[in-house]
Amino acid sequence: MSNHVLLIDANKTPMNPIHPAHAQKLMDTGKAAVFRFYPFTLIVNRVVENIITYPIALKIDPGSKTTGISLVNNRNEVIWGMELEHRGSVIKDALQSRRAVRLNRRQRKTRYRKARFLNRKRPKGWLAPSLMHRVQTIETWVKRLCKFALIAEIRQELVKFDMQQLENPEISETDYQQGTLEGYSVREYLLEKYDRTCCYCGKTDVPLQIEHIQARSKGGSNRVSNLCIACEKCNQKKGDRDIKDFLKGKPDIISKILKQAKAPLKDAAAVNATRWKLLETLKMLELPVTTGTGAETKFNRIRLHLAKEHWIDAACVGVTNILKVLTSKILRVKSTGQGGRKKCQTDTIGYPQKYRPLKPIHGFCTGDIVKTVIPKGVNRGTYIARLCPYSDGNGEIYPKSGKKRIGIKLEYIKKAVHRKDGYSYA
Questions:
Q1: What CATH number labels 357-425?
Q2: Which pLDDT score is estimated for 349?
Q3: How many CB atoms within 10 Å of residue 70?
Q4: CA angle, residues 359, 362, 368, in degrees to nearest 5
Q5: Does residue 301 register a pLDDT over 50?
């Protein structure tokens, strides 16, 4: 079952989200029309007086790479869900690329921007652009959903990864008191790090155990760089054997595990760095904001026998006694950005590659979702797909079915279904 459909009246006042079958009936009878495709929203053709609405809780499960968002009504029913994929790593790579280009131009003594390091001051609470992006994209979608649904409260998972305990789980006594959540951060971090997959056999959707890459009996430690996730069968079969003996003849798997084991704790650090900033940002929206712990979310999900998904984790945030999931097909959103502003595209060392025309091109931008009718040829038909326009009046569309891309003339475009807004949708 798909998400419930968001609904507004002729004055753009939010109404109760409705079942997809009800939405189809309103469109068939001409009582409503499509107002927005992503998120899918209908607008009725009249002003509705004395709207009887029920309060909706917007729940958020922030993550380093993916954030889950769910709408839960007053009957504890999950009626809408989405997963938002961030682009923090892309922003970081772009900043490093720009920095490298500037350095190369200074070394070549060509026209360059002088280095600045003594004349800038960062404001209090400053976050790196790759981190602030996570906060701003979540804020954008919360504001967007508040326009189309009557949000009564916001619940955020205020998860905290203990960086010291991740690095040194042996810490104890006066440094850390053992409690009911001992080891929780380490296990959750490893599950996220290895995508909930057995490192040795690749199985998913099975109970996974914490595995020492180098056995404790052979001098291995409890540090997170020596831990991975394995199913019970692989864990028992490996025992205290060396990983190179256990995976003999599989050098690719060995190198992958060892490389991933030494990966830095940047994902956990990103969550820790942005959690309070996100909370402050949400409180500025003048809605009641409550928080829940990561342990509480996991306890609710396991107790209610729900699958491990980001949007389901979001629905389990906070105090939850019962929960009924009414949707299975959710909106998947990937942050793509608005594109570069450079007129000249350069390679990694700063040499020009090609000219980039100013946008929009003939009224369209790269990323617009358009309805195209191709009248003839092998690709004849009607397509609703993402567009990449060219300045010569041609372009390419990227349909979901089979073919990777199709060359078209811009005159074949009938209308823009959804203008580019910095996100791609599925």
A1: 2.30.30.520
A2: 65
A3: 30
A4: 65
A5: yes
Q: State pLDDT tens for residues 372-414.
A: 999 988 888 999 888 989 888 899 998 876 668 899 999 999 9
Q: What residue ranges do the domains of the chain occupy?
A: 6-44, 56-87+127-161+266-335, 163-261, 357-425
What H or E segment, with its residue span, contains residue 6? Answer: strand 6-8
What pLDDT shows up at residue 401? 66
163-261: what fold? DNA Binding (I), subunit A (1.10.30)
**CA 346 to CA 100: how far, in whole Å?**
12
Distance between CA 63 and CA 69 in Å, rounded?
11
Q: Compute how many other C-beta atoms are within 10 angstroms of the C-beta atom of residue 410.
A: 18
**What span, in angstroms and rounded, lies between the C-alpha atoms of 345 and 343?**
7
Give me the half-sphere count of Cα atoms (radius 13 Å) on the Cβ side of residue 47: 2
The secondary structure element, H or E, covering residue 394 is strand 394-398
Residues 6 or more apart from 400 whose CB is under 8 A from it?
Answer: 385
Higher pLDDT among residues 340 and 74, named by residue: 74
Using alpha carbons, select from 186, 196, 192 the residue that is nearest to residue 163.
186
Residue recorded with tokens 């309070």? 276
Q: What is 289-343 written as a DSSP string?
A: EEEE-HHHHHHHHHHTT----HHHHHHT-SS-S--EE--SB-EEEEE--S----S
Is the predicted pLDDT of residue 158 greater than 80, yes or no? yes
| CATH code for the domain defined by 56-87+127-161+266-335 | 3.30.420.10
Segment 192-210, tens digit of pLDDT: 788 888 988 888 888 888 8
Given CA atoms 282, 287, 293, 299 in this order, what sign does their dihedral have? Answer: negative
Do 389 and 410 meet the contact criterion of CB atoms below 8 Å apart? Answer: yes
CB 169 within 8 Å of CB 161:
no
